[in-house]
Amino acid sequence: MFSGIKFYFHPAKFSKGRLNVFTTQVKNHCGIVVESSEEATYVIVEESCDTLSLPTSLWHEDRVLGSVWLSKCLKEKLVVEFQQFRITKPSLKRLTSSPESAGAGTSESGSNKSPDYDSRGQTSKKYACSQPSLKNSEACNAAVLDQLQKLADVYRARGDQWRAHGYEKAISAIRRHGKEITSFEDVASLEGVGCKMAAKVMEVITTGSLRKVEELCTTEESRVVDLFSNIWGAGPSAAHTWYTKGYRSLEDLIKNGNLTKQQQIGIKYYNEFLDRMSRKEVEEIGQKVTESAKEVNSSLTTMLCGSYRRGKQTCGDVDVVVLKPQQLNSKQILTSILSRLKDTVFITDDLVSLEKNGNQRKYLGVCKLPGDEHKHRRLDIFVVPQTESACAIMHYTGSALFNRSIRLLAQTKNMHLSEHRLCAGVVRQGKEIVDEGQVLSTPTEESIFKHLDLEYRPPEERDH
Ligand code: DCT
Ligand code: MG
C-alpha cells in the first residue's frame, strides 16, 4: 500500500523498538525509508517531540505527520486520509487529539469551520457524542481504567484541569472501545489517545500498575489534598492552600480553616456526600420534589435528570428539572417549592440559596428522607420554561463530557448549543459570540440531534 512513498522518521522521541517496528512495516508494505527529511514524501514524528529543528520547507508542504497516522494506516491496511494527523509548526500539540481535549486543539480541530472538512464526514466522528457510551465496558480494561482514573483525579485535585481532561478523554475512548486492549496499536488508534497515553496504557497492561500513580498518589500531599478537595465547596486551590498552611485533617480545618458556609456543610456531611445512593432513593427524593411542585401549581411537571436518567446504578446527587408554563415566574415557583420542602424538614441545608445566587432558577442544597436509615443527600432543583425543555433536559442529563462534546460539535457547524436553546448561523470572533444567529425549533431531544446531523443517542448512551 505504500508503494513509492518515502518515509523519514524524525528520530526525536522515537524508541528504538517502535522505530524498528515502523521501519519493517513500511518496507513490508512496499514503502521506502529514507535518511533525510528533504527527500521524504512524509516526515513521521512522535507527537510529543520537539519538531522545531525540521526544515521550513516541510511545513509549507504539510508533510509532517504524527506517528498515529502511520499506526492507523497499518491497522486499517490502507493509506488513510492524513489531514487530521498533520503536525503544524511551531505547535508541538497533536492534531490527532480529539477536539474535546481542553487546550489541545489547533486550527484543524474544535474551531474548524471548513465545509470541505465537514463534507468528508470526519468532523463529527471525532466527537464522543457521535458514538454511544457502552454499558459495563469497564470490565475488559478494568486495571487500565482504574489507574488512569487515579491520575485524572489527582491532576484535577491539583488544579491541572488540562491533564485531568486528557486522562478523562482517554478513559472515555477506552470505555467506548469496549474490547480488551492488548497492543500499543490497539490503544494508539483510538480517538483522543496519543502515543504518550498509549505508552501509559501499555505500562499497566505489562506491569499491572503505573509508576506515575505510585509517585503522585501515595505522597502525604496527595492524600491530604485529596481529602480536602472532596469537601463540597472546596476547589483544588483551597485544598492546596490548606495543605501549605500545614493543615492535615478535617479537624484542623474546622479549628483554623476559615471555612465558607458551604465548606462547613461539606465537612458536616463529608462521608454522607461521598456515598452514592441507589436509584430507588433518587426516585423517593424526586417524588418529594414532585409532590411539592404539584401543590404549588398543578401545571408544573418534573423530571429526574443527571446520572439517574443515564441509567446509572448509583447516583452522587439528585438533579430535578421542574418544567413550568411561560407565564409562571421561576423565582416564585422555586421559593414556594423550597418553603414546602423546608417546612417538612426534608431540605436541611442550603448550599446556594436563591437570594445570594442572583440566579432565579437554580437551587443547590441538602435533603434527607425521614428515618435513621437515610443519609443526607445533595439535591439540585432547576426550574425551566417548557419552551426550553429539550435543551435543558439534555444539559442536565449530561454527562458533562457528552455536553462538552456536543457543544463543540455544534460550534464546528456555526451553531451554539446551551441549556436554553440551539442557534444556527452564529458568528464568533475567537470564542466570543458576536451574532447569536437564529434560534432553531427544538421541541424534543431528537430534534437537537437532527439539527446537528447526529444519530440520536438515548440517555443511557450518553454516559461518556
Ligand atoms: N454538567 C455539565 N458540566 C459540568 C457538570 C455538570 O454539563 N461540569 C451537567 C451534566 C450532568 C448534570 O449537569 C448533572 O451534574 P452532576 O450531578 O454533577 O453529574 P451526574 O452526571 O449527575 O453524576 P453524579 O451521579 O455524580 O451526580
Ligand atoms: Mg447528578
By DSSP, the count of extended strands is: 16
Mind summarizing the main beta sheet? 5 strands, mixed
Spatial order of strands in the largest sheet: 6-8-11-10-9
Question: What proportion strand?
Answer: 5-15%
Arithmetic mean pLDDT: 86
Bound small-molecule species = 2',3'-dideoxycytidine 5'-triphosphate, magnesium ion
Q: Give me the Rg, rounded.
A: 25 Å
Helix content: 40-55%
N- to C-terminal distance: 35 Å
Shape: globular
Given the structure, what is the number of helices?
21
- The chain-level structural class is alpha/beta
Uncertain runs with pLDDT below 50, 5 residues or more? 91-98, 101-121
Structure description:
There is one protein chain. With 464 residues, this protein is of the alpha/beta class. Helix content is 43%, strand content 14%. The protein has 21 helices and 16 strands. It has helices spanning 16-28, 56-60, 67-76, 115-119, 142-157, 161-177, 184-188, 195-207, 211-217, 220-229, 236-244, 250-256, 261-268, 270-274, 279-296, 306-309, 330-343, 354-357, 389-397, 400-412, 445-451, and strands at 6-9, 32-33, 42-45, 64-66, 277-278, 301-304, 314-315, 318-324, 347-352, 362-368, 376-385, 416-417, 422-424, 427-429, 432-435, 438-439. The strands form five sheets. A five-stranded mixed β-sheet has the order 6-8-11-10-9, with helices on both faces. β10 and β11 form a beta hairpin. The chain starts with 5 loop residues before the first strand and ends in a 13-residue tail after the last helix. Magnesium ion binds at residues 306-307, 315-317, 319.
Describe the secondary structure blueprint for this structure:
Layout: E1 6-9, H1 16-28, E2 32-33, E3 42-45, H2 56-60, E4 64-66, H3 67-76, H4 115-119, H5 142-157, H6 161-177, H7 184-188, H8 195-207, H9 211-217, H10 220-229, H11 236-244, H12 250-256, H13 261-268, H14 270-274, E5 277-278, H15 279-296, E6 301-304, H16 306-309, E7 314-315, E8 318-324, H17 330-343, E9 347-352, H18 354-357, E10 362-368, E11 376-385, H19 389-397, H20 400-412, E12 416-417, E13 422-424, E14 427-429, E15 432-435, E16 438-439, H21 445-451
Parallel strand pairs: 1-2, 1-3, 3-4, 8-11
Antiparallel strand pairs: 5-7, 6-8, 9-10, 10-11, 12-13, 13-16, 14-15
Helix pairs in contact: 5-6, 5-8, 5-9, 10-11, 15-17
The structure holds 2',3'-dideoxycytidine 5'-triphosphate (DCT) and magnesium ion.
Magnesium ion binds next to helix 16.
